[in-house]
Design a protein that fits this description.
Length: 63
């Protein structure tokens, strides 16, 4: 894990959407980010309650 103290968390319908949000927030490419998946998305059974978004924690890598 990075020695950076500052990190941000992002959520999305899936992990890729959360990563795109992080890239836009940091104005950085995916290669410049250190990404830890906190939670994978979870679909509700037959469209019922229980759906959860994906959540990631992102650090900006040192250049």
């Amino acid at each position: 894990m990075s020695n950076n103290v500052h990190s941000e968390e992002f959520e999305g319908a899936d992990v890729e959407e959360a990563i795109r949000k992080a890239m836009a927030h940091f104005s950085s490419s995916r290669e410049e980010l250190e990404i830890k998946v906190v939670r994978e998305e979870k679909k509700g059974l037959f469209g019922m309650a229980g759906e959860k978004t994906a959540k990631i924690k992102v650090f900006l890598k040192n250049k």
